[in-house]
Structure prediction request, 768 residues.
Amino acid sequence: MQEQLPTGPTSPLGVARPPRDADEVLAGLDPEQREVATALHGPVCVLAGAGTGKTRAITHRIAYGVHSGVMQPQQVLAVTFTARAAGELRGRLRQLGAEGVQARTFHSAALRQLQFFWPRAIGGEMPRLLDRKGQAVAEAAARCRIRLERTELRDLTGEIEWCKVTQTVPEDYPAAVLGAGREAPRDPAEVARVYAVYEQLKRERGVIDFEDVLLLTVAVLEDRADVAEQVRSQYQHFTVDEYQDVSPLQQRLLDLWLGERPNICVVGDASQTIYSFTGASPRFLLDFRARRPEARVVKLIRDYRSTPQVVHLANGLLGQAQGRTAQHRLELVSQREPGPEPRYTEYQDEPAEAEGTAKRIRELLASGVRASEIAVLFRTNGQSEVYEQALADLGLPYRLRGAERFFERQEVREAGLMLRGAARAGSEGTETLGEQVRAVLASVGLTPEPPGGSGAVRERWESLAALVRLAEEYEAGRAAAGMSTALSDYVAELDARAAAQHAPAVEGVTLASLHAAKGLEWDAVFLVGLTEGMLPISYARTAEQVEEERRLLYVGVTRAREHLFLSWAQSRSPGGPRGRRPTRFLDGLRPGTGPRAAGARAAGPAGSTADREPAGAWDAGSGGAAAEGGGPARTSRLRREFRPAVCRVCGRTLGDAVERKLGRCADCPAELDEGLYERLWKWREDRARKQKLPSYCVFTDATLLAIAEARPAGPAELAGIPGVVRAKLDKYGADVLSLCGEPDAQTDPVETGVGEPRSETVEKSPEK
Ligand code: ATP
Ligand code: MG
Prediction:
């Protein structure tokens, strides 16, 4: 997963060694990247697409600054947004010989400062971090006598987070939500009440949450000039990667860190904005020049990461994007040799999709691709399990957690102790370093061949094997520089890596959410579960939310260097109804599909066209009523009585009977409640069997689908669904409504963006 191409000069063995001086740092850069790397003074803004070397440019810029003596490593702070991305930054900086530079998430940088300054600035001990926010929000809601379902709790928690990063206090929430054009998850006054009680609850318990860490750091820096002064004298140079995802609160913190100084370098890609739902905004990136007219703005367009085939799909996706970020899209130009075309596969059900994916992974491994160079990316964490199972069934190693915690694993700590002991004993011999390390680690369970399966035992083995591989690479790197290597050198290297959290690549297929994959890359990427409802996720309702989902797919596609597989399943479980459709985002891009009508794309599932009434065919029974005329009153009565059947998504007039029943074109996106559809389906089979009737006599597929999409709340709404005639309402109404009222614990996809990638590494050590 780590940057593949050597950053510094390469030894005859193909191992990168750190550059010796500032000029060597620049050797691996193209002219624009070099412009970034050498602009050490004054604000710099890099606007560039995925894989164009933004992260490479900023890490080289820091290394160039360090090697040329302009920057002291301890005075540089590089920040990004996820723990994985921070780990990636640290790894790259170390490879470039820029040890000692702090590369952190905003959160972990703020937390360190807050912990360090708390006793002086506030006094006493810093409060504990709240670890189960959802539970606290549920409690706050209960105190307000509001009972929340799982999805409602998720939405409300997200809304409170949004309030905090946009610095909206409870009293201002109703006005702020209006002003921001946001859709409140429930009555704004209620949200404000729960938010206020949640804050009170935290105060009562003496705990703070994730957002409070940033808010309190900002408050301390604003109130205490001496503290601000100390932080500013420590950090002189700031770099922000993935700047398109900065929130107003993080921006405020950044401004406080910086003070009046110009030493800031930001890089980002508006087309990869994927955290808007948490209050992040690309406007800080896009308006950087306006805020700092003296800034140097550099654009990069050469894509070094992906083959022309992958880039073509990425450009195609961007070509269909709408909205402000889309105006800033940058067409990518691949610099790599051609590779295989992206492959699209439709499976019958999810287990089949997972099994098919695992088999393809096995083929890739057999063809020589390393497991650590393969990733399976999904929209929600709930999708992971079936892939874990499928990989385990084939005995393929995988990893869920980020490599950043490598040095805290028990087996790695044990291995460190053993290696330290062996180094002290000074076991000199003719063996290579790799052989020595292998021999020592045999005592903690390293066998020549990996154990079968892919559970904890295999994970342990892979950690130990990673330490051997690292030893081999380390030795080769030093040999290239004309140095010999003792075991004690390797132990020192491991200590330095542990301090910098620079984990080696552990073999294992990465399973991660699309959000967590940001900034990373693999040779082969599997984008799975690409169905309507998953991508865009069912609760992405506004056109803007749908655009963010499209960008998420763009992020996924651009993670692949060479092999890209895209797949979806027609139904969730084997034998279940096959109501799922592939994501609309691939329409016109995957073979055999034409572009969707522009109106539908722009509006998304919630793009209501109710007030558009195209002339043309009328629904059954309307005859030529529209042509009759008879004054405005009559026309409006006729309109009420004889509404034309138009697609509620794109507004097209519907001719086909099934489409009329559905209330939308067959290929327009559905807001299908899949869990409900499955329950209705099973219920219908059961009823039909009992009544000894064919299933369609109970309800046709189209009617079931229409019910699952409309999710009627009472008999009147149910009766309004075409196909639910009086007799059926009497006979089945109660059953259907009770199924519609059931919460669907299984299907509710959990938003990965809220918790996981933002739950960054929490470090406890004080500011140095
Ligand atoms: P993202 O938008 O996904 O964060 P990025 O713009 O930060 O991407 P990098 O991760 O820095 O891109 O670079 C993508 C890949 O291209 C890396 O493997 C990097 O080593 C390689 N690369 C970048 N620039 C060059 C270059 N000038 N020569 C060779 N390889 C390069
Ligand atoms: Mg990057």
